[in-house]
Amino acid sequence: MTAPTAPDSAVSTHLVVTGARGQVGRELLRLAPAARGYGRAELDITDPSAVRAVLAPGDVVLNCAAYTAVDRAETEIEAAYVGNETGPAVLAAACADLGARLIHLSTDYVFPGTHDRPYDTTDPTGPATVYGKSKLAGEQALLARCPDAHVVRTAWVYAGRGGDFVATMLRLERERDTVDVVDDQLGSPTYAADLAAALLELAGRPDAPRVLHATNAGQASWFELARAVFAGVGADQGRVRPCDSSAHPRPARRPAYSVLSPRSWNEAGLTPLRDWRTALEDALVRVSD
Fold this sequence. Notes:
Blueprint: H1 9-12, E1 15-18, H2 23-31, E2 36-38, H3 48-54, E3 60-63, H4 77-98, E4 101-107, H5 130-145, E5 149-154, E6 157-158, H6 165-175, E7 179-182, E8 186-187, E9 190-191, H7 192-203, E10 211-213, E11 220-221, H8 222-232, E12 240-243, H9 263-267, H10 276-288
Parallel strand pairs: 1-2, 1-3, 3-4, 4-5, 5-10, 6-9, 7-12
Antiparallel strand pairs: 8-11
């Protein structure tokens, strides 16, 4: 995939983006400005009446809304399931009744994170965290209720702004002499703009498989990603030092390995996403403008 481009305007007018104020939602609206976008303040996706009021037959709903506080989910269990299971279930039921399609963004956390090869869509799930369990429950509820629904799992999404990992590394590069970053967790860094473009392509492919994986190509540890960020802004990579996960204990255990296989996406004839390093270069140029 080259740099993301906007879809046909006729397609955009039938797009509905939920979770429109998040990383991917903002990129979807940038690439498809004619789409109807709703943030949490504008639409409660757990309210069936509110959802049905904004949808119409023929719409394609891109659901980016989610409860994403991975650590807080360990204690805010009900809130996690409301956001990640109830909301998608309500959207799915509404789409099924109205004759709309639904594309739902999910996560690598539905897997146990113990593989030594990229996870395929056919691999057994087995989430180890409340967040992952709630996201898997959302997938299952959605697929059961809406025959025209797709689940797209992704991982390590960043835009380079706000509080995401890349933005944090850019801030720490300015503030600290050295930064310690874990090197025993592997994943697929994914640029939000590339993911948004991929979802928009999928919006025009109702024949695609129901469950897909979409990440930028390749894999990296958080340490390697941090070094690439430093290098991308002309800073000394040696200022990023490796450590293991025990140096940064978290309430929710992070997957040691969460690389997702692109096989399902590529075999469907969808455009392969570009290498994560190339995408990161573009992201760093954009945030510096």
